[in-house]
């Protein structure tokens, strides 16, 4: 792709603390983004709250801010540095949520900052549980029967329809924060209450449980023209029910036939074409029923 000449300064948001769901791979991706952009002659402004990262070494960005990753602080940095563009896709969930917050505050529009790497619609589609579920239905891919709720009462009603056990997943959170499996009403009340509290938008998804299903991930790269490559396939040794961050994983996947792998690859391409990932890396997780091979996204 040709270099864009209308951009001079690009701001990168780092991922902050290293935790499950947002680990050292985002430090690596941030470093690579800094190096790639500077090699093309762009001025890079980096903000990250974690000084114990490689990306915050002074050699990687033209201006480095080790500050709390909040919309208020980011807005002050934007006011001072006046970047032409903001790149949030190499900073994990923290950077994506900050990009949404900056858009909601009107900061990006006020200072004429373009979002690159992914559009606002793409971020919302990938992070909002109901929007993502609807998008998968539109492209004829299956996802677990589920319902988005904003209260404990509605969570109990949803569980009655779906049947116990149910998986609780808060919207716009990372690494499974606030989620869990509820086997009965008492457990669901506790997990739902915590999940709603943890979610920045006060929403949780009540999912059909896929405990015992096999779990696979595909790591992919895509550009703005739709060129697509699977970097690697990953297989969880533990079945669904054990969080990926707590599980042993093997790359490449060991128990998929080539036909099955190609099926997951084609599904991944459909997903990211629908989500609208502009550039960069992403991953998609699949659950496969070991009895009949049924695939859920």
How many β-strand runs? 14
Order of helices and strands: EHEEHEHHEHHEHEEHEEEEHEE
What distance separates the N and C termini?
A: 31 Å
Please give the CATH class of the largest domain.
Alpha Beta
What strand order characterises the main sheet? 3-2-1-4-5
Tell me the helix content.
Answer: 25-40%
Strand fraction: 15-25%
Number of helices: 9
Overall SS class? alpha/beta
The total tally of domains equals: 3
- Average pLDDT, rounded to a whole number, is 88
Q: Could you list the spans in which at least 5 consecutive residues all have pLDDT below 50?
A: none
| CATH architecture assignment of the largest domain | 3-Layer(aba) Sandwich
Apparent shape? globular
Largest sheet: 5 strands, parallel
CATH topology of the largest domain: Rossmann fold
Radius of gyration: 20 Å
How would you describe the overall organization of this protein?
With 297 residues, the protein is an alpha/beta fold. The protein has three domains: 9-116, Rossmann fold (3-Layer(aba) Sandwich), CATH 3.40.50; 145-208, ATP-grasp fold, A domain (Dna Ligase, domain 1), CATH 3.30.1490.20; 214-296, 2-Layer Sandwich (D-amino Acid Aminotransferase, Chain A, domain 1). The protein is 35% helix and 23% strand. It has helices spanning 25-39, 71-81, 92-105, 107-110, 120-127, 129-138, 152-162, 185-198, 258-275; strands at residues 9-13, 43-48, 63-66, 85-87, 114-115, 146-149, 166-170, 180-182, 204-208, 214-222, 228-236, 249-250, 280-288, 295-296. Strands 3-2-1-4-5 form a five-stranded parallel β-sheet, sandwiched between helices. Strand 13 and strand 14 (295-296) form a beta hairpin. The radius of gyration is 20 Å and the shape is globular. It starts with 8 loop residues before the first strand and ends with a strand.
